[in-house]
Write a structure and sequence with these properties.
Blueprint lengths: L10 H7 L17 H12 L17 E4 L16 E4 L1
Antiparallel strand pairs: 1-2
The structure holds zinc ion.
Length: about 90
C-alpha cells in the first residue's frame, strides 16, 4: 500500500459537515455533489492520481472514495477525511 501524506481536508467539506443541526446530520448517504467530487479531487491530488492499493493511475472517473476503516465497523469514521482514500 502506498504511503499517503494526508493534507488538510477541503474547507468546503468542513463547512458542509458543520451544517449539522437537530434536523439534519451529515452522513455518507447524503454525501454528494458538490462536496463529494471536491473531496474526491483532493484525495486524487494528494495521492498523485495513483491508486493507493495497486499503484495504477486513476482519475475521478476510474476511481472511487474508499474507507480505510470500513463504514460497517467504523460508522463514526465515514466522513473522517483521514479515513478516506481514492482507489480503483
Ligand atoms: Zn487499484
Amino acid at each position: 500500500m502506498k504511503y499517503i501524506n494526508k493534507n488538510e481536508e477541503p474547507s468546503k467539506f468542513t463547512c458542509w459537515k458543520a451544517l449539522e443541526n437537530d434536523d439534519w446530520k451529515p452522513s455518507w448517504n447524503v454525501f454528494q455533489a458538490p462536496e463529494k467530487p471536491i473531496v474526491h479531487d483532493a484525495l486524487l491530488k494528494e495521492q498523485g492520481y495513483i491508486c493507493s492499493y495497486c499503484g495504477m493511475r486513476i482519475t475521478r472517473e476510474t476511481s472511487h472514495i474508499e474507507h480505510l476503516k470500513p463504514r460497517s465497523s467504523y460508522p463514526h469514521l465515514a466522513l473522517e477525511y483521514t479515513n478516506l482514500i481514492a482507489s480503483c
